[in-house]
Protein backbone atom coordinates (compact mmCIF):
# COMPACT_ATOMS: atom_id res chain seq x y z
CA UNK A 1 0.00 0.00 0.00
CA UNK A 2 1.47 3.33 -0.98
CA UNK A 3 1.22 6.60 0.88
CA UNK A 4 -1.23 9.19 -0.43
CA UNK A 5 0.53 12.54 -0.62
CA UNK A 6 -1.39 15.81 -0.39
CA UNK A 7 1.52 18.22 -0.83
CA UNK A 8 4.76 18.01 -2.77
CA UNK A 9 7.81 20.18 -2.25
CA UNK A 10 8.78 22.31 -5.27
CA UNK A 11 11.75 24.12 -3.75
CA UNK A 12 14.18 24.27 -6.72
CA UNK A 13 17.17 23.72 -4.44
CA UNK A 14 15.56 20.58 -3.08
CA UNK A 15 14.63 19.32 -6.55
CA UNK A 16 18.23 19.74 -7.72
CA UNK A 17 19.67 17.81 -4.79
CA UNK A 18 18.95 14.35 -6.20
CA UNK A 19 15.92 12.12 -5.89
CA UNK A 20 15.33 10.03 -2.80
CA UNK A 21 12.92 7.84 -4.83
CA UNK A 22 10.30 7.74 -2.12
CA UNK A 23 12.73 6.49 0.52
CA UNK A 24 11.79 8.77 3.38
CA UNK A 25 10.96 12.40 2.70
CA UNK A 26 7.44 12.30 4.12
CA UNK A 27 6.50 15.34 6.18
CA UNK A 28 3.27 15.98 8.04
CA UNK A 29 2.10 19.37 6.81
CA UNK A 30 -1.00 20.96 8.36
CA UNK A 31 -2.18 17.47 9.31
CA UNK A 32 -1.73 16.13 5.78
CA UNK A 33 1.15 14.20 4.27
CA UNK A 34 3.74 16.09 2.26
CA UNK A 35 6.63 14.64 0.30
CA UNK A 36 9.99 16.22 -0.46
CA UNK A 37 12.04 14.30 -3.05
CA UNK A 38 15.28 16.09 -2.18
CA UNK A 39 18.21 14.40 -0.47
CA UNK A 40 19.91 16.03 2.53
CA UNK A 41 17.77 19.16 2.34
CA UNK A 42 16.95 21.81 4.91
CA UNK A 43 13.43 22.49 6.15
CA UNK A 44 12.70 25.26 3.62
CA UNK A 45 10.12 23.27 1.68
CA UNK A 46 7.77 24.98 -0.76
CA UNK A 47 4.57 22.99 -0.57
CA UNK A 48 2.23 22.69 -3.53
CA UNK A 49 -1.08 20.87 -3.19
CA UNK A 50 -1.33 17.65 -5.20
CA UNK A 51 -4.98 16.88 -4.56
CA UNK A 52 -3.96 13.54 -3.04
CA UNK A 53 -1.94 11.16 -5.21
CA UNK A 54 0.14 8.02 -4.54
CA UNK A 55 3.73 8.82 -3.66
CA UNK A 56 5.03 6.85 -6.67
CA UNK A 57 3.65 9.59 -8.94
CA UNK A 58 6.06 12.12 -7.47
CA UNK A 59 9.41 10.61 -8.40
CA UNK A 60 10.97 8.78 -11.31
CA UNK A 61 10.45 5.04 -10.83
CA UNK A 62 11.92 4.05 -14.18
CA UNK A 63 14.77 1.57 -14.21
CA UNK A 64 16.15 2.20 -10.76
CA UNK A 65 19.69 0.94 -10.49
CA UNK A 66 20.12 -0.80 -7.18
CA UNK A 67 22.92 -2.63 -5.50
CA UNK A 68 23.88 -5.94 -6.99
CA UNK A 69 25.85 -7.54 -9.79
CA UNK A 70 24.89 -7.13 -13.42
CA UNK A 71 26.17 -8.63 -16.66
CA UNK A 72 27.19 -5.92 -19.12
CA UNK A 73 26.47 -6.22 -22.82
CA UNK A 74 30.17 -6.92 -23.47
CA UNK A 75 30.19 -9.78 -20.98
CA UNK A 76 31.94 -8.01 -18.11
CA UNK A 77 30.53 -8.13 -14.62
CA UNK A 78 29.34 -4.82 -13.17
CA UNK A 79 29.26 -4.50 -9.39
CA UNK A 80 26.98 -1.80 -7.97
CA UNK A 81 27.57 -0.97 -4.33
CA UNK A 82 25.87 1.57 -2.09
CA UNK A 83 28.20 4.30 -0.87
CA UNK A 84 27.97 6.03 2.48
CA UNK A 85 26.49 9.20 0.98
CA UNK A 86 23.58 7.31 -0.57
CA UNK A 87 25.07 7.28 -4.06
CA UNK A 88 25.97 4.11 -5.91
CA UNK A 89 29.49 3.02 -6.75
CA UNK A 90 29.81 1.19 -10.04
CA UNK A 91 32.79 -1.08 -10.67
CA UNK A 92 33.34 -2.94 -13.91
CA UNK A 93 35.37 -6.16 -13.90
CA UNK A 94 37.91 -6.42 -16.69
CA UNK A 95 36.95 -3.04 -18.09
CA UNK A 96 39.08 -1.73 -20.93
CA UNK A 97 40.48 1.52 -19.58
CA UNK A 98 40.65 4.67 -21.65
CA UNK A 99 37.97 3.92 -24.20
CA UNK A 100 35.31 6.05 -22.53
CA UNK A 101 32.53 4.02 -24.08
CA UNK A 102 29.16 3.50 -22.46
CA UNK A 103 28.40 0.18 -20.88
CA UNK A 104 24.96 -1.23 -21.39
CA UNK A 105 23.76 -3.26 -18.45
CA UNK A 106 22.11 -6.57 -19.08
CA UNK A 107 20.51 -8.98 -16.69
CA UNK A 108 20.93 -8.60 -12.97
CA UNK A 109 22.70 -11.71 -11.73
CA UNK A 110 22.41 -11.18 -8.01
CA UNK A 111 21.49 -8.69 -5.31
CA UNK A 112 24.98 -9.34 -3.95
CA UNK A 113 27.41 -6.67 -5.27
CA UNK A 114 30.28 -9.12 -4.65
CA UNK A 115 28.88 -11.88 -6.85
CA UNK A 116 31.88 -13.68 -8.36
CA UNK A 117 32.44 -14.31 -12.03
CA UNK A 118 32.49 -18.08 -12.37
CA UNK A 119 32.48 -18.17 -16.15
CA UNK A 120 36.25 -18.86 -16.19
CA UNK A 121 36.18 -21.30 -13.29
CA UNK A 122 38.11 -24.49 -13.87
CA UNK A 123 37.09 -27.81 -12.45
CA UNK A 124 39.81 -29.18 -10.25
CA UNK A 125 39.92 -32.89 -9.65
CA UNK A 126 41.27 -34.01 -6.33
CA UNK A 127 43.34 -37.12 -6.43
CA UNK A 128 41.85 -40.00 -4.54
CA UNK A 129 43.11 -43.52 -4.06
ZN1 LIG B 1 11.74 20.16 0.18
Model description:
By secondary structure, the protein is mainly β. The protein folds into two domains: 4-58, no CATH class; 68-110, no CATH class. 3% of the residues lie in helices and 34% in strands. The chain has one helix and eight strands. It has one helix spanning 12-15; strands at 4-9, 26-29, 32-35, 47-54, 68-72, 77-82, 88-92, 105-110. The strands form two sheets. A four-stranded mixed sheet has the order 2-3-1-4, with no helix packed on it. Strand 2 (26-29) and strand 3 form a beta hairpin. The protein starts with a strand and ends in a 19-residue tail after the last strand. The mean pLDDT is 82.
Amino acid sequence: MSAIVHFECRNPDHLRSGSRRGNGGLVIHHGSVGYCDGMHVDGAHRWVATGGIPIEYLYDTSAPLDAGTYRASGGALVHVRPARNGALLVEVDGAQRGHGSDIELGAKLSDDPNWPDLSDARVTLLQAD
